[in-house]
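Chapter summary example: a protein plus nicotinamide-adenine-dinucleotide.
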Amino acid sequence: MDSKEKLKKFWRNKKVFITGHTGFKGSWMSILLNMLGANIYGYSLKPNKKSLFNQANCKYFLEENFYGNINNFNNLKKKLKKTKPNILFHLAAQPLVSKSFSDPLETFQTNIIGTANVLNAIRNIPSLKSIVIITTDKVYKIKNSNRNYKEFNELGGKDPYSVSKVCAEHLTISFIESFYKNKNIRNKISTARSGNVIGGGDYSKNRLLPDIINSINNKKKMIIRNPNSVRPWQHVIEPTLGYLKLAELQYKKKRLHKDQNWNFGPNKKSFVKVIDILKIVKKRYKVKIKIKKNKDFFETNILKLDNNKAKKNLNWRPNWNLQKSIDSVMGWNDEFRKNKNAKKISEHQINNYFNKK
Ligand SMILES: NC(=O)c1ccc[n+]([C@@H]2O[C@H](COP(=O)([O-])OP(=O)(O)OC[C@H]3O[C@@H](n4cnc5c(N)ncnc54)[C@H](O)[C@@H]3O)[C@@H](O)[C@H]2O)c1
């Protein structure tokens, strides 16, 4: 993996447009890009009051901070024309499987039409030299086996969230083949699929680590829906660095790879059950759990990603094992309760990551 200094050489003064910058992953990406000297332009809905974006005062180090809806094509296009970015990361989405059951239309609207808006809006922005569309590990058609999904495996979803992200994948191919075929930009767009991402400052509902931290902080029993579900757990710094590396090489090379989709999953030892994560946390913290089978919505039982393509082609690899990743999330939370300086805590963890601590 590249050193921070090496990354800085590329990212310094690059104009980077992030949709979804006010979210959990977008905030970590913004903090990291700010450390690397990039000029960041963000386009998202306003963050919740309790959000990493607010806690880390992200809006003060952004070049421009746009609060706008991804479904508003004209506004999005106007902001892109105005800022003339070099690189774009599309993260804006309704990202929760649970919410996709209670509000499928919003999920389809934002994740499908929102992505189509991004892909359409970039058509006449000549400054753009690299675009990464963030989808998910949940895009693969589940074969009920213990396999690790590779990028060329069949796509297919059932729940509304997965289907919306499968559509985002197909839309990306459609735009490349239909509108960019004879243009340089055709080789400059990829989709990126990460695993179950964990990190400090995630306050989403129905995600395991935020639920654990809530139950510790409020001394309440936590409800576990699917204790035996296997997920590819990874710290947010890992896929974020993968997205950055992908964007950089796409920017620099005429054609990075013939297949423009990339997995950024953890190493195999981090494919574990929900209940195994709890066992690790319970070594150091008191967590009371109640197992209540989920009847409101279904989720895939086993999800494993193969990360060899990114390792081989991007000089990217996961550095933190599961224990270290979980310690970092819990440590972030402990530190934040003490000193409230979310930006400093996150930067410190990113520096530790670079220093292999
Ligand atoms: N967190 C994970 O475990 C995980 C795993 C795989 C993929 N992803 C993907 O990564 C991306 C970011 O996820 P996250 O966990 O940071 O989610 P999040 O909910 O914390 O952030 C979502 C971001 O999208 C923005 N957004 C939502 N609807 C919008 C709209 N209509 N218009 C403009 N902006 C809108 C929000 O304002 C926010 O900035 C999503 O695309 C998600 O599907 C997340």
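Key point: The radius of gyration is 19 Å.
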